[in-house]
Amino acid sequence: GRTVKRDHFTGNPFGGTSSSESRRMNISLNNLFQGKMIKNGEEKKIDLFYLNFTTAHNFIADSLKWNDLQSSLRASASRDLDFSFTATHSFYKPTSRGTGRRNEYMWENGFEMPRLVNFQLNARLHLAPPANKDKQNAGADSTLIADSLQVPDITVDPITEGLRNFSLPWDLTTNFTYSLDKNDINNTRKRFDMNLAARLEITRNWRIQYSAAFNLLDWDVNYQSFNIYRDLHCWEMSLSWGPNPRGYSFFTFEIHVKEQALRDMKLTKSSGG
Fold first, then answer.
1. Lowest CB count within 10 Å: 1, 56, 87, 89, which one?
2. Entry pTM
3. Which residues lie closer than 8 Å to 129 by C-beta, 6 or more apart?
4. Radius of gyration of the chain, Cα coordinates, nearest whole angstrom
């Protein structure tokens, strides 16, 4: 008298037969906006931004048949600047507690747009000095001429020439994130953070790096650290220092051999002992 159900398609790469009814429609609208540039009579097509929308409808649900509307926008102005935006909208009004959804459309008592539940905006900016190829080529050419002649040019001031070719390689990357959470209409939560990473090469052997995370709404430093690196030929030195608030500052100093097999030969000192 015991009934045993067996599915002929169990173990199939495409899955077995569903044991429950399902009638669902997924809807997506994907947009790619493009532009055309004409330079020197030549036409070039560029991608401006992507704008996508997705939602779904459950035909056999007894209520709340529509999923939230998910929106996303992504654009890249250049290799050094891009941003993205995501948002969630609900077609239903919130419950009496101000959270969740009740089975009543936003526009039932008059026209009203879908309710914003949350959104997040991200932006990235990268800055670095442009590469001066002409100066590099000129320096290489003058070096070749001097080497071939083996005669110093007394008309050139070595200090002035050195300052003219002097450069400090550096780069800076910042990431901004702004988010808004309205899942609870009585308690809207906001965040506006910035992450920063910077690098400066003072000389060929000295390098300084800085990284930090900031809360821009409260103008507070969540985290920061400095790293100083020195190339010592066969050895290398690094100093990490994190002057952070709320009692979790640290420092680490280390000198070790470069050779991978001998990296255990080192001298270390840290705030932890």
1. 1
2. 0.74
3. 167, 169, 170
4. 30
